[in-house]
Known about the structure:
With 274 residues, the chain is of the alpha/beta class. 28% of the residues lie in helices and 16% in strands. The strands form two sheets. A four-stranded antiparallel β-sheet has the order 2-3-1-4, with helices on one face. Strands 5-7-6 form a three-stranded parallel β-sheet. The chain is elongated and about 70 Å long. The site of one calcium ion has 7 residues, from loops.
Amino acid sequence: MHKNKLILITSFGLLLMFAFAFNSRATAQSVANSPAVIDQLIIQYQPRSGIQLKVTSEFESQMQNLSAEAGIMLEYARPMSGDAHVLRLPTKITVEEAEKIADKLSALPEIAYAEPDYIMLPITDFSAPLMLVEPNDTYYADQWHYFTPVAGSYGVNAPEAWDFTTGSSSIYVAVLDTGILNHEDLVGRWQGGYDMISTSAMGNDGDGRDANPLDPGDWVTANECYAGSLARDSSWHGTHVAGTIGAATNNGMGVAGLNWVSKVIPVRVLGKCG
Ligand SMILES: [Ca+2]
Ligand SMILES: [Ca+2]
Ligand SMILES: [Ca+2]
């Protein structure tokens, strides 16, 4: 696996992590603040259901079926991407009522999911000045990739994101890489994991797949991987990535992690020679 793929996987994981955190908070707030505001549902058919609600002659009977199942008259509003559809309710109802109806529709075998078209509310008062949380880790000043982007740099604007969330204990981030070291700035920040490298020579730990994801090193001598391959020191890449995602943060030592709470699950997929 190439490094670029790893970076992509890592980046995608971070995006998911933050998207999930933002979404869950926004949803929770919409439930608390919206007693009777839902007037639409969103449904999506199973990919192979063969039902194309917006175009076929099945339209009327499908709408009647859905209304019967929902126990309320549903009116077709508009299509969405990915064979999802917006259905309109005859009146505004509470989030709880809408979720019950969505649950009934979700139970139909041809429906992949159904959910209220939630009214999202801002999760912060944007007129208030942001705190711009800055952690106290020793090397944080060198971690430009977390900073607010300025001309010529591409920081991810972590201080502003940390004002919203520093992570969630219900989220785990799998790092598919070279494994992990028992590093002092990762104490308590990872758990479980697995060594998926099936050959002893590449795994460099004397066996095939096993439940111990510790990284024994991936150094190679000249010509070890193929004729003419160069000698190389261990990369410890998995530990580096795990630290970027979830190093112990604001603990006055080492580096800061992007996520201060969610734990890393290290999975070894890269050893000697790849
Ligand atoms: Ca092994
Ligand atoms: Ca192992
Ligand atoms: Ca630290």
